């Protein structure tokens, strides 16, 4: 039999046969390489393309921005933004980040890394969402639960924020408030750890080419002030319906249940949600520079 015969495979395996030793040596060398090759190919096939979400009220310029980026990704010369159109459903587009835009992940690489010299465009996905108030919850804010989401671009029309009493200012602040609250709940909720990554937010202060547009610093101050008003109003609403100020109630309040006045820095300190306000313009003379700064922010998230 195999175990007792002098010529059996089990006897030769333990007899120090040179052929068996050579075979074992080849297996020891080849097996790790084969395992590495298998998992590497599996990872390559299941590579997830990073996704960014475009939010903002109607008329802010979200669709025009996405159209411009799409044309630039197609290497069309003198690409210009198209006319803004009303979006009814989310629009998903595959884009290419120019190779001249530095990536945030490169800071972890050595200066001698040869891959840094071989520059090529980076692919990412951007989802445009409807800005109409009736479509925001189902068609826009629900997209914030995307597990591969890398960042949120909240586009605002900086030319309609010149008055704190305008309905546009209140609407923009309420929408941004709801966006940040969903991200806060996403971070503190009981969902799986895959959905708890920090999601940065870029407030793209669009239409800086217009004379009535507020500069980025003023946009930041105006939004923080208006969001504080929304936050205070909704906190009083929770108290009015008899909800006790317990831990569950604090989850419904942006920034938690603290007494500190709302600021974007509060979101970063308490929940790791960074909010940057960067000015630019999809159209006009400032279009190139504005899009460039927003693309640099996207690159920093990759």
TrEMBL record:
It holds the Pfam family SRPRB. InterPro entries: P-loop_NTPase, SRP_receptor_beta_su. Keywords: Endoplasmic reticulum, GTP-binding, Membrane, Nucleotide-binding, Receptor, Transmembrane, Transmembrane helix. One of its GO terms (molecular function) is GTP binding. One of its GO terms (cellular component) is endoplasmic reticulum membrane. Its main location: endoplasmic reticulum. The keyword Ribonucleoprotein does not apply. It comes from the Eukaryota. Belongs to the SRP receptor beta subunit family. This is Signal recognition particle receptor subunit beta. It comes from Capronia coronata CBS 617.96.
């Amino acid at each position: 039999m195999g175990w007792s015969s002098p010529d059996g495979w089990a006897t030769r395996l333990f007899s120090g046969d040179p052929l068996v030793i050579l075979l074992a040596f080849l297996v020891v060398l080849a097996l790790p390489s084969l395992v590495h090759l298998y998992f590497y190919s599996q990872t390559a096939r299941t590579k997830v393309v990073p996704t960014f979400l475009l939010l903002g009220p109607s008329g802010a310029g979200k669709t025009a921005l996405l159209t411009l980026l799409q044309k630039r990704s197609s290497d069309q010369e003198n690409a210009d933004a198209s006319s803004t159109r009303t979006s009814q459903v989310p629009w998903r587009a595959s884009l290419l980040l120019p190779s001249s835009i530095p990536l945030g992940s490169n800071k972890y690489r050595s200066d001698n890394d040869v891959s840094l010299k071989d520059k090529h465009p980076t692919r990412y996905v951007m989802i445009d969402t409807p800005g109409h108030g009736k479509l925001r919850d189902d068609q826009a804010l629900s997209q914030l639960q995307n597990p591969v989401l890398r960042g949120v671009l909240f586009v605002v029309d900086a030319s309609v924020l010149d008055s704190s009493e305008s309905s546009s200012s209140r609407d923009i602040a309420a929408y941004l408030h709801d966006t940040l609250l969903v991200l806060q709940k996403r971070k503190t909720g009981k969902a799986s750890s895959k959905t708890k990554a920090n999601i940065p937010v870029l407030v793209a202060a669009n239409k800086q080419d217009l004379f009535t547009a507020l500069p980025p610093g003023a946009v930041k101050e105006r939004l923080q002030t208006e969001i504080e008003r929304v936050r205070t109003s909704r906190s009083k609403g929770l108290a009015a319906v008899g909800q006790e100020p317990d831990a569950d109630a604090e989850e419904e309040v942006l920034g938690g249940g603290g007494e500190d006045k709302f600021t974007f820095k509060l979101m970063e300190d308490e929940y790791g949600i960074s909010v940057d306000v960067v000015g630019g313009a999809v159209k006009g003379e400032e279009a190139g520079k504005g899009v460039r700064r927003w693309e640099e922010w996207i690159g920093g998230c990759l």
